[in-house]
């Protein structure tokens, strides 16, 4: 359908103006009635955060999302733009996307008087109607609200009190859209004051000159509780004017966390060089690293552990398996437990340590978190290392007796992380009973997964203090009997 191009055509079409608040509310109501997904891609908030956001939108509220790093606050703010009308008209050439039926700036009002129904209009897509600003201490009133432009005043021979000499900041330019201020506490108090009247009355003040300008902006804010107390604060009058405060959180269930990571991580490399498979147990291990970090006494929990940790770690694990296959000349690769230890660079930059953690060192803490995650994945996939299994003859025997007996009899297993999948499986198969245990317990789909799970058994037994592990550099490890290792350490 041909859209109107002039004010006269727009009037003839019967188009009616409505505020951003009304747009958001009406479109949300429509989605709720039709049971459409309101915020696609936002996982884990279905029964907590999303209902509160919907309430705020239905109430016409400005709101703030308060939560730790990596809790999808900015993603949610950006998703609000999908609740705007797909297309709206604006005065052609207007800096502030003004409504053709209700211009607010002096130049646009003058053009409307002069041109009448011939006033040209353009159509804005909803994607143009979202703006955001990261609050930093160096943000000025001019950046956010605007300032007097002395060059414009001089060339047009206007006084500084004339509204036509104003250079508008980013917030007025978001007129008829959504404006998000990220990390609001980092904004200086005197800058926060500039938001007060916009939230309530819609007017702004530049250089002491009051300007009545009914801006129509949906305001959303985000903040981190740590920054709220340590680096700055939200001034009380502004906090009072933000109608709703919504608390975000990390995923509470493992499957929710995995869904988020799978959605965000770059898994399908698309070039077809190496096809990398990540077995389910290893995939759980990667996610469990973040869960372990969020419970660790060495990690500053007030700082939070971002969901980006799991995303980056999954990508690194895939890349390490890919690199190994390329060097081994193999077209496929399967991720293995050792890949998680090579991916701790995704952990070291994303956790803040408390004093005891600093004493341990970030590398040691990260490696310990990976080890605990692998140990947890082992217990989720295989029987308890201390459990007993009913034998064929009806007698009870330790589940891992054959494996542990091989090591107790003096066997040691050296693993080279650079070995391809075929060589890796052959090496692991030297351990008596290990292959049979995994095939019988976990039913691996292929040899790559079989080798990965066999290594997970050894690492799980090590985490349970049933096997020793000596690291010989970054790429080689040796598993052996725990008692023999203790005897060597005592010099026996």
Topology:
Elements: H1 7-13, H2 20-33, H3 49-58, E1 63-66, H4 73-79, E2 87-91, H5 106-115, E3 121-125, E4 130-134, H6 141-144, E5 146-148, H7 150-156, E6 166-168, E7 177-182, H8 189-192, H9 196-200, E8 204-206, E9 209-211, E10 217-223, H10 225-230, H11 236-241, E11 244-247, H12 254-264, E12 275-277, H13 280-293, H14 308-328, E13 332-334, H15 337-342, H16 345-348, H17 355-360, H18 362-381, E14 388-390, E15 396-398, H19 401-408, E16 413-416, H20 421-428, H21 434-442, H22 447-463, E17 467-471, E18 476-481, H23 482-489
Parallel strand pairs: 1-10, 1-11, 4-7, 7-10, 12-13
Antiparallel strand pairs: 2-3, 5-6, 8-9, 14-15, 16-18, 17-18
Helix pairs in contact: 12-13, 12-14, 13-14, 13-18, 18-22, 20-22, 21-22
């Amino acid at each position: 359908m041909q859209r109107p191009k002039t004010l006269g055509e727009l009037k003839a079409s019967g188009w009616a103006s409505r505020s951003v608040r009304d747009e958001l509310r009406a479109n949300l109501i429509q989605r709720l009635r039709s049971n459409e997904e309101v915020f696609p891609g936002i996982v884990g908030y279905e029964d907590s955060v999303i209902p509160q956001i919907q309430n705020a939108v239905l109430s016409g509220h400005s709101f703030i999302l308060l939560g730790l790093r990596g809790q999808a606050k900015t993603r949610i703010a950006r998703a609000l733009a999908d609740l705007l009308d797909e297309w709206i008209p604006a005065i052609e050439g207007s800096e502030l996307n003004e409504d053709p039926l209700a211009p607010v700036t002096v130049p646009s009002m003058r053009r409307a008087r002069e041109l009448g129904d011939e006033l040209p209009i353009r159509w804005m897509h909803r994607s143009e109607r979202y703006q955001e600003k990261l609050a930093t201490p160096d943000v000025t009133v001019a950046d956010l609200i605007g300032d007097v432009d002395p060059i414009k005043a001089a060339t047009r021979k206007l006084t500084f009190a004339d509204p036509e000499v104003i250079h508008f900041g980013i917030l007025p330019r978001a007129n008829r859209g959504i404006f998000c201020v990220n990390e609001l506490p980092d904004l200086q108090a005197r800058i926060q004051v500039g938001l007060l009247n916009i939230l309530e009355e819609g007017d702004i003040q530049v250089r002491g000159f009051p300007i009545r300008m009914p801006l129509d902006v949906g305001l959303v804010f985000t903040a981190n509780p740590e920054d709220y107390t340590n680096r700055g604060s939200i001034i009380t009058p502004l906090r009072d004017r933000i109608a709703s405060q919504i608390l975000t959180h990390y995923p509470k269930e493992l499957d929710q966390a995995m869904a988020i990571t799978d959605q965000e991580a770059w898994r399908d490399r698309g070039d077809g060089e190496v096809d990398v498979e990540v077995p389910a147990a290893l995939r759980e291990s990667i996610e469990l690293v973040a869960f372990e970090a969020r419970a660790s006494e060495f990690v500053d929990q007030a700082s939070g552990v971002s969901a980006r940790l799991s995303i980056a770690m999954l990508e690194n694990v895939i890349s390490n398996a890919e690199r190994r296959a390329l060097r081994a000349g193999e077209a496929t690769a399967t991720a293995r437990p050792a890949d998680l230890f090579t991916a701790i660079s995704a952990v070291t930059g994303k956790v803040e340590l408390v004093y005891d953690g600093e004493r341990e060192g970030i590398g040691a803490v990260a490696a310990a978190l990976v080890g605990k995650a692998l140990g947890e994945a082992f217990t989720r996939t295989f029987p308890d290392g201390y459990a007993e299994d009913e034998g064929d003859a009806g007698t009870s025997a330790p589940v891992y007796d054959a494996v542990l007996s091989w090591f107790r009899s003096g066997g040691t297993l050296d693993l080279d992380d650079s070995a391809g999948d075929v060589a890796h499986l052959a090496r692991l198969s030297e351990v008596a009973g290990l292959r049979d245990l995994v095939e019988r317990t976990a039913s691996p789909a292929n040899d790559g997964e079989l080798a990965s799970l066999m290594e997970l058994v050894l690492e799980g037994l090590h985490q349970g203090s049933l096997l020793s592990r000596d690291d010989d550099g970054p790429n080689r490890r040796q598993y052996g009997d725990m008692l023999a290792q203790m005897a060597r350490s005592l010099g026996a």
